[in-house]
Amino acid sequence: xxxxxxxxxxxxxxxxxxxxxxxxxxxxxxxxxxxxxxxxxxxxxxxxxxxxxxxxxxxxxxxxxxxxxxxxxxxxxxxxxxxxxxxxxxxxxxxxxxxxxxxxxxxxxxxxxxxxxxxxxxxxxxxxxxxxxxxxxxxxxxxxxxxxxxxxxxxxxxxxxxxxxxxxxxxxxxxxxxxxxxxxxxxxxxxxxxxxxxxxxxxxxxxxxxxxxxxxxxxxxxxxxxxxxxxxxxxxxxxxxxxxxxxxxxxxxxxxxxxxxxxxxxxxxxxxxxxxxxxxx
Length: 281
Prior knowledge:
Blueprint: E1 3-5, H1 11-22, E2 30-34, E3 46-49, H2 58-62, E4 67-70, H3 79-93, E5 97-103, H4 114-127, E6 131-136, H5 144-153, E7 155-158, H6 170-182, E8 189-193, H7 201-212, E9 217-220, H8 223-232, H9 237-251, H10 261-266, H11 273-280
Parallel strand pairs: 1-2, 1-4, 2-3, 4-5, 5-6, 6-8, 7-9
Helix pairs in contact: 1-6, 3-4, 5-7, 7-11, 8-9
Protein name: Quinone oxidoreductase 2
Keywords: Oxidoreductase
Pfam families: NAD_binding_10 (PF13460)
């Protein structure tokens, strides 16, 4: 069985390939799809050009491939046509299984990122390709930039109130993808993948304090005041809107979850947030 990992040079893609190799998958059964193959030259597997924006690269890369892990594109606003091109090419190539990295409760969530994932899930269902949906919650690593800033300033700005995020590490999500890629009986399943312990802004500040060895306090703000503070710090309008909308989503519970799908797939507890922060700070 040959499996193609899209976005193979990204953080998640590389970790999935590492996990597959550790699980004993032969290197010649793994194909790394990369927009720029030269950037994947260090990977010990077959590398092919695979550019979501250049459909002519997709069909050749999919020849002889049985399973595709479609790692969602990174740029909001253009994901749906990019994903549609991959799904269409996979269907035309006769791919027997498609696995997609979506987002928590994509079909019902008000999360600002959910719409494109919901549409992609619908395209996959319409394609008729047997599929598995991995609805990944937030990554611990998404907090590293704000954690570093908070550690330096001694203050964490937040408008998320008491909202909680059930995040996990990239390696957790990568190992879950590898478990599905190498396992059986996952077709037609939607997995809601979340960390074991959800955290609030107060919990995050405490973890940053512990990792950095210096106190960090939370300043709770209204969305309007948060936007003003971020603007004053030099962030552009689009970034400010994204961050404040995300905090509003968190406050409304969009990233809170207590399901065990991730822990069950990887066969161990998920990585604690504090562990990732300690490694980074």
